[in-house]
Design brief:
665 residues, five-stranded mixed sheet, 50% helix, 10% strand, globular
Length: 665
């Protein structure tokens, strides 16, 4: 292929100001030429591996293990490198060391009789694995990933071959000196962390980090320190973001879900949100109430409580649920444009008879003890409730750890992302029954498709960052709650949220939440192609990647839809969903050879992995295989680099024409 690098003087003159700025970074012809050579070479490396995860829901141990083992990639590489030269038990030991180096080293040192020999063998093995995972990156990129104290040594080991007779002794002396200077432990930890880092180039979280599981704060700690990631906000993330922005209805929902699943660790240990004021209020207010319908789902999440704690959580659960309905009623009253008057559920209750009215029918309540509700004014908070929510509000908006994590979510998050011909969003694009984009009114203007998500992205940021006390902040903050449960919210997209009915009414017909047209129409290739085009993804290679709705593999559902144009990758990371899905999550992996889906079995614990070498059992399914390996030039990054290269070529010509002067000569 012949490349025409001729650049006209006119085009250089048009961009002269920019080229003069660019010359500050590349002040000579030699500097600009060297950078062009470097970037052209990078374009011809294999594309980095992208991992897509969704609906993690606080399951931090499984999440962190999947990152450590690269969704099974590390184990596959160890098998490829060592084949039959190592026994299965030895390969398992090596993998466990790579995943959990500090913990595994403690166990090894307690049992090994010849530790020096173990160090020698292990360091050589780790060098081979590290050479393999670093082979698709430039030396410069690998160097930037190295821990400073071992940077030079690791570079020497990675880029020299022990098979070369002239280098064999050199490499072995480096390794033996690492051992003799008692730096082997630190060096092994550094190598293992480097292998983990290089296995995954980019991590995409397609929503729902929070709720249900016990460690969303631990997941956020991991992400805040991760080398390259992005998040497409899910409805549960939005709920926490709304709470952090000061929306009290969002706060009540967050606490209710924590109590429902018996997981208070994220609130109390993660963010220092003390639930004692709520506990005191609940135990006094509901002292004679069995609160049967509010028992925590400890059997689902694996938590066990003694009778006293179980009772207290049930009381707190009911107290915050009633408070939530009151706070939500206030939002619906002041925001009629949300069109949610039918969810002002406390108005449909006959408190004296214990009856719920819905669409002309009467339904007996399973629980009709409402000591804090005035039937004449059901949404009015009692003085005690006002005090409780005031204290809760203060804790949410002043938590430093929560502020740090929210900043991270805002910095690296968005409503959607287009990356390498993949369109990522958590749940839905609102559609009409005929597949056309549904028009949603926000502040008197209609939005649909891409511009709807763009407008919502702006409002989400306004809710958190706008000046306190302004009308635009108040509206955006209320809209955060709407995104959690509103019928035209792309993060939800159902006709209603039947929380009240599920707690208080026995008739399950009232629990139904009708999904928007999107959830059916997304199975059609034509509809997916129309959505991709709306977001600027044209041609036949694009995909939509969603989470939000668990794929029930037990019922024969599959994650691939619409003739391969859409992937739903919520496979049940959350233990609460695993009885429905039959598995414990998916990872979608996009590497230079194509697309693979990795299906995970339940993960017992990190402790079991360390002590017994238990890994997540994963099954790989090849979804698409590229006949020609995808290179960096075929990616979004490649397109950016090609533009940059053209600018550098213009700079070269400008130097040669004398339009820009070389510096430092």
């Amino acid at each position: 292929m012949t490349i025409n690098h001729s650049i006209s003087q006119e085009s250089i003159l048009n961009d002269l100001r920019y080229l003069q700025l660019l010359s500050r970074s590349f002040p000579t012809i030699a500097d600009a030429s060297r950078e062009i050579i470097n970037l052209e070479a990078i374009l011809n490396l294999p594309k980095g591996t992208e991992h897509f995860l969704t609906d993690i829901h606080g399951e931090y141990e499984a999440f962190r293990h999947v990152l450590k083992n690269g969704s099974g990639s590390v184990k596959r590489k160890v098998n490829e490198i060592f084949g039959n030269t190592l026994r299965e038990a030895e390969k398992k030991e090596l993998c466990t060391l790579i995943y959990y180096p500090k913990d595994k080293l403690r166990l090894v040192k307690a049992r090994e009789k010849d530790l020096e020999d173990w160090y020698l063998i292990t360091l050589n093995q780790l060098v081979k694995v590290c050479q393999n995972v670093s082979s698709k990156y430039t030396r410069s990129k690998v160097r930037k990933s190295l821990p400073q104290e071992f940077s030079y040594i690791i570079q020497e080991l990675l880029h020299e071959s022990s098979m070369d007779p002239n280098k064999h002794a050199y490499i072995q002396v480096i390794i033996s000196t690492i051992i003799s200077t008692r730096r082997a432990d630190d060096f092994i930890i550094a190598m293992c962390n480097l292998i983990q880092r290089l296995t995954i180039e980019t991590l995409h979280i397609v929503g729902d980090i929070f709720d249900r599981g016990p460690g969303a704060h631990i997941i956020m700690d991991t992400l805040c320190d991760y080398h390259n990631f992005d998040v497409q906000w899910g409805n549960h993330d939005i709920l926490w973001m709304g709470a952090a922005a000061g929306n009290r209805s969002c706060m009540a929902n967050v606490i209710r879900l924590s109590l429902r699943y018996g997981n208070m660790a994220t609130l109390e240990e993660g963010y220092n949100i003390n639930l004692l004021p709520l506990a005191t209020f609940a135990m006094e207010t509901y002292s004679d109430d069995p609160c049967t319908q509010f028992a925590p789902k400890g059997n689902v999440t694996g938590n066990a409580f003694n009778d006293k704690t179980f009772r207290m959580i049930s009381q707190m659960h009911k107290a915050i649920t009633v408070l939530q309905f009151k706070l939500e009623g206030a939002i619906m009253s002041r925001r009629p444009e949300f069109d949610m008057a039918d969810r002002r559920v406390l108005e449909y209750v006959d408190y004296e008879r214990g009856i719920y009215f819905w669409e002309g029918q009467e339904y007996p309540l399973r629980d009709h003890l409402f000591p804090t509700i005035d039937p004449a004014d059901p949404y009015r908070l009692t003085e005690e409730e006002e005090e409780v929510i005031r204290k809760i509000h203060h804790l949410f908006v002043t938590s430093e750890k929560l502020k740090k994590h929210m900043r991270c979510l805002y910095t690296y998050g968005s409503m959607y992302l287009v990356c390498n011909e993949n369109l990522l969003y958590h749940a839905s694009i609102p559609l009409n029954e005929d597949g056309s984009f549904k028009r949603v009114t926000i502040l008197g203007r209609e939005f649909w498709g891409k511009n709807l998500l763009d407008r919502i992205d702006q409002l989400v940021r306004t809710a958190y960052f706008a000046e306190e006390g302004t009308e635009k902040k108040e509206l955006a903050r209320d809209f955060m709650w709407y995104l959690w449960c509103g019928k035209d919210a792309p993060t939800y997209d159902k006709d209603k949220m039947t929380t009240f009915e599920r707690y208080f009414v026995g008739d399950k017909d009232l629990y139904k939440e009708e999904k928007g047209a999107y959830y059916t129409l997304r199975n059609q290739e034509e509809v997916c192609m129309r959505i991709l085009k709306e977001f600027g993804v044209e041609g036949g290679d694009g995909h939509i990647i969603n989470g939000h709705v668990p794929v029930r593999t037990l019922k024969g559902e599959a994650p691939m839809r619409a003739n391969g144009k859409l992937f739903v990758i919520d496979g049940g990371f959350s233990k609460a969903y695993q009885p429905e899905t039959g598995i414990a999550g998916y990872t979608l992996v996009y590497h230079s050879h194509g697309l693979e889906l990795v299906q995970h079995e339940p993960f017992e614990s990190a402790q079991k992995a360390i002590e017994e070498g238990q890994d997540i059992k994963s099954t790989n399914f090849v979804l698409e295989f590229n006949s020609q390996r995808r290179m960096v030039r075929d990616t979004d990054k490649g397109r950016t680099l090609r533009t940059y290269i053209e600018n550098l070529r213009m700079l070269l010509e400008a130097y040669r024409m004398g339009l820009v002067q070389e510096k430092g000569r």
